Amino acid sequence: MTDAIRTDALGKTYPTGTVAVKDVTLTVRPGEIFGFLGPNGAGKTTTISMLTTVLRPTSGRAEVDGIDVARYPGRVRRRIGLVFQRSTADEVLTGRENLEVAAGLYGLSPAEARPRIRELLDHLDLGDAADRRVRGYSGGMRRRLEIAAGIVHSPRILFLDEPTLGLDPQGRAEFWEFVRDLRRRQELTVFLTTHYLDEADRLADRISIIDHGQLLTTGTPGELKDRLGGDLLVVRPARAGDGIVRVLESIPGIANVDPPAPDGAYRMHVARGESMVPSVVRACDAAGIELATVSARSPSLDDVFLTMTGREYRENADALENGHTHSP
Ligand SMILES: Nc1ncnc2c1ncn2[C@@H]1O[C@H](COP(=O)(O)OP(=O)(O)OP(=O)(O)O)[C@@H](O)[C@H]1O
Ligand SMILES: [Mg+2]
């Protein structure tokens, strides 16, 4: 079967000299919900823009549904739907009218469009609101309407750039449920970007993590976490000091202790986290090191990011939510 998306050393350097995307190679299979994750300024929008023919790659290549995006942008465009970061619905039109406009833009005749729009409004739970102006829609309803507009022409691949940005956790969970439901109803591959690692962890079939334009890793969320191996033991001493690394590494079962995170906590990968806690407490006690906290847990995608980059993921996400623009 043709891959839904295939890129080979895809890259984009803007005329300003910014290398926004560098050597990105990935494959998305048909029918997957693929999460493209990364912090603020990582290169998500630039990548999605190249895949949707909005921007031309400056190096490498990409195929969407088997078609080269640089050579046949028109053919690619007919096969894809695209929903951008910002709302595009017309406030003074009704939901149905918005979909009629979208259908017209995609070249559907009114006779083709009418039944398709009715079906979509139904599937997306917008049937009752179809003939009301969009101005009165809730955030969730708008999102669904934008998606409907993006798939009115029955594309094979749907691209969503940060579709859950600004929604609360419940709204985000509902949105994903809705995307999964959509995929169950029709043959559709979904490629979406997000900076929420936790939601992609729970809901995407596979993900890639991108940082500073470079792909860090690709796989199912479970695979990425399993690659870290076992559990994560987090030890936070009461006071910063240099002796603790040596003490921890002397405990059987602890091999490598990473440098402390900004919160002062040391993380280490161990086979069975819970069972290590008493040894850590004993060893530190014997060495006269006072501990603030010791905890064990299974790794999260945040840990995957931290392990691969040496940086916390959250600080980036917080900056984004506080409305800061791209970090250097
Ligand atoms: N038109 C442009 N000209 C020059 N540089 C750009 C342009 N658009 C984006 N960049 C830069 O390219 C890099 C990647 O930006 P991009 O928008 O692709 O990231 P992103 O992952 O989508 O970020 P965000 O989470 O903020 O949406 C950033 O350093 C950004 O400042
Ligand atoms: Mg973006």
Short structural description:
By secondary structure, this protein is an alpha/beta fold. Helices cover 37% and strands 24% of the residues. The protein is built from twelve helices and 13 strands.
Main attributes of the structure:
disordered C terminus; 13 strands; Rossmann fold; alpha/beta; 6-stranded mixed β-sheet; binds adenosine-5'-triphosphate; single chain; Alpha-Beta Plaits; 328 residues; 2 domains; binds magnesium ion; 4-stranded antiparallel β-sheet
Explain how this protein is built.
With 328 residues, the chain is an alpha/beta fold. It has 2 domains: 5-221, Rossmann fold, CATH 3.40.50; 230-298, Alpha-Beta Plaits (2-Layer Sandwich), CATH 3.30.70. The protein has 12 helices and 13 strands. The protein has a 6-stranded mixed β-sheet, sandwiched between helices. Helix 3 packs across helix 4 and helix 8 (221-228) packs across helix 11 (301-309). 38% of the residues are buried. Residues 317-328 have low confidence and may be disordered. Magnesium ion is lined by residues 44-45, 85, 161-162.
